[in-house]
Amino acid sequence: MLKIENLQVAYGGIQALRGIDLEVPDGKIVTLIGANGAGKSTTLRTISGLVKAKGGSVTYDGQELLGKPINQILEAGIAQVPEGRRVFANLTVLENLKAGAYLRKDKDGIEKDIQWVYELFPRLQERSWQLAGTLSGGEQQMLAVGRGLMSRPKVLMMDEPSLGLAPLVVQGIFEIIREINRQGVTILLIEQNANMALKTADLAYVLETGRITMKGTGAELLADESVKEAYLGKKRT
To answer: Burial, 124: exposed, middle or buried (Cβ in 10 Å; 0-12, 13-18, 19+)?
Structure first.
């Protein structure tokens, strides 16, 4: 289990996270929803080691992650698909996937996992020698997810995977998220599309100005009137 306790992060004098508690049980899809600036991306970036925490604890299977270098966090089984995809535009699809496995030494396992990614995303196999920068937005998102999977993570953190994508493509991305989870990968998902996120998640948290204000199952938060009004665009009657 990935466990966050009393996590505090500050940028200069601004308190971005104000002592949040969050649990991501093994084998589950957990989503964190909230408005822009609530601290969602900061949470993921702190877990990944990209942002330094002011206080608190982040553990995975009892191992403290705070203060560890990024490569050790990745080796512990925590990988992140960044917001905005951030594929290597001048590398091919295949080279991007291999870049995701840069800490690994098992050549046979890497080749096997490339085929696994191609099974999940047949479009990537069709375009394996195409430069990533020439792919469509949806294809780049597929590649970003595939690259994240190449480290063989136990927990895959995804930051706004549907951002800027057409509705039909979004449906496909969420189907893939469910399939990755069915194949044994735990998911921590940040998503502006709260409706899709809550329908997909086993557990959900609401983050507001650096504090967790609600938690429950995805279904419970989907049915909550205050969540409907704030995040699902439905007015109270």
So the answer is: buried
Q: Are the CB atoms for 142 and 96 separated by under 8 Å?
A: no
Strand order across the 29-33 sheet:
78-81, 155-159, 186-190, 29-33, 203-208, 211-217
Nearest of 79, 50, 47, 51 to residue 63 by alpha carbon? 47
146 CB neighbour count, 10 Å cutoff: 24
For 178-227, what is the HEC assignment? HHHHHCCCEEEEECCCHHHHHHHCCEEEEEECCEEEEEEEHHHHHHCHHH
What predicted TM-score, i.e. pTM, was given to this entire model? Answer: 0.93
Sign of CA dihedral 94, 95, 96, 102: positive
Over residues 73-132, the pLDDT tens digits come to: 999 999 999 887 789 999 999 999 999 999 999 999 999 999 999 999 999 999 999 999
137 neighbors 61 (Cβ within 8 angstroms): no
The band of 234, judged by pLDDT with boundaries at 50, 70 and 90, is low
C-beta separation of 65 from 137 below 8 A: no
- Nearest by Cα to 125 from 146, 103, 108: 146
Instruction: Give the start-end residues of each E strand in 47-162.
Output: 55-60, 63-64, 78-81, 155-159
